[in-house]
């Protein structure tokens, strides 16, 4: 599924959710499946009365069945696509919880990749749950003017290569790039932002960006639940004025998103996950294989 198709699917999902809220409103006003029209209320016979004809009055049948069918179809559509925790729990209850994106085949070709962390019981990578979206927010303070296109492009590249689905939760004033899980173990969305070494000391020197994730461990199974990306605001300001700076800015962000998903640096200069920027602006064969393997884990 292409990036454009996934964006269209998200728009459809939001429309389904809007329609479901409208059905909830109609339900509260008229009863589930009822038509939003009003009929005059006449006298109601007492219990046991048969009326003047000697037969019980026939019950008037409204459009309840068609209304219920429409409501059911909308509910099923939202239920199948809803990536929230409530939607996931419902799918698990009926045994229908599956990955959100398409499984990406392992690409042919030789390349180098490395994982930032592996499972305690073997060499399988620590990764995200492919049955949940990777939620993220952006703090645009210090960002280039076209930061929205920049983020959307890099996220789309990573989605395409891994099969994970990202969920844009808008902008945020949050600037905590380190503590992304609260004291109760509740993860915040992945934070993408721009900063300087005065705020994030590890951006000192030639560091263009920092990215990584935090995992939680349940039953010796580690799963990433949140993360952050801090990009050098000064460097991005310089690149914004450079004719070829757009490709470099996207490459840096895509590199850091690779770290968020679980990739580590490699020694192959032909890979985007090489530790230094040497002109590589696209994912290399090893990058693609590593991302596909991260996206190929089972739902956790």
Order of helices and strands: HHHEHEEEEHHH
Cα-to-Cα separation, first versus last residue? 23 Å
Average pLDDT? 80
Count of folded domains: 2
Instruction: Record the strand order, biggest sheet.
Output: 2-1-3-5-4
CATH homologous superfamily classification of the largest domain: Collagenase (Catalytic Domain)
* Low-confidence regions: 30-60, 91-96
Helix content: 25-40%
Largest sheet: 5 strands, mixed
CATH class of the largest domain: Alpha Beta
Rounded radius of gyration (Å): 26 Å
- Could you name the CATH topology of the largest domain? Collagenase (Catalytic Domain)
Could you tell me the number of beta strands?
A: 5
Structural class, from helix and strand content?
A: alpha/beta
Sequence-ordered SSE layout with sheet pairings:
Layout: H1 3-30, H2 64-81, H3 85-93, E1 134-139, H4 147-162, E2 166-171, E3 190-195, E4 209-218, E5 221-232, H5 233-240, H6 245-261, H7 285-295
Parallel strand pairs: 1-2, 1-3, 3-5
Antiparallel strand pairs: 4-5
Helix pairs in contact: 1-2, 4-6, 5-6
């Amino acid at each position: 599924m292409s990036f454009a198709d996934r964006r269209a699917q998200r728009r459809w999902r939001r429309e389904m959710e809007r329609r479901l809220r409208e059905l909830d409103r109609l339900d509260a006003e008229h009863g589930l499946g009822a038509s939003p029209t009003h009929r005059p209320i006449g006298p109601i016979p007492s219990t046991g009365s048969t009326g003047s004809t000697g037969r019980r009055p026939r019950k008037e049948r409204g459009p309840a069945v068609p209304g219920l069918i429409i409501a059911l179809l909308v509910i099923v559509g939202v239920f199948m696509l809803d990536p929230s925790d409530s939607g996931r729990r419902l799918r698990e209850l009926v045994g229908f919880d599956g990955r959100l994106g398409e499984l990406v085949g392992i690409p042919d070709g030789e390349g180098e990749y490395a994982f930032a962390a592996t499972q305690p019981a073997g060499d399988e990578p620590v990764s995200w749950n492919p049955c949940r979206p990777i939620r993220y927010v952006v703090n645009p303070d210090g960002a280039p003017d076209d930061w929205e296109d920049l983020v959307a492009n890099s996220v789309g590249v990573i989605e395409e290569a891994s099969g994970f689905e990202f969920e844009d939760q808008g902008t945020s004033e949050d600037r905590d790039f380190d503590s992304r899980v609260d004291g109760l173990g509740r993860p915040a969305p992945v934070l993408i932002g721009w900063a300087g070494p005065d705020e994030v000391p590890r951006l000192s020197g030639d560091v263009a960006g920092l990215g990584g994730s935090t995992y939680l461990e349940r039953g010796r199974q580690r799963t990433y639940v949140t993360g952050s990306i801090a990009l050098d605001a000064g460097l991005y300001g310089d690149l914004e004025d450079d004719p070829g700076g757009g490709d470099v800015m996207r490459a840096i962000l895509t590199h850091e998103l690779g770290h968020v998903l679980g990739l580590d640096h490699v020694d192959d200069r032909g890979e985007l996950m090489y530790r230094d920027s040497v002109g590589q602006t696209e994912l290399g064969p090893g990058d693609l294989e590593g991302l596909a393997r991260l996206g190929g884990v089972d739902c956790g």
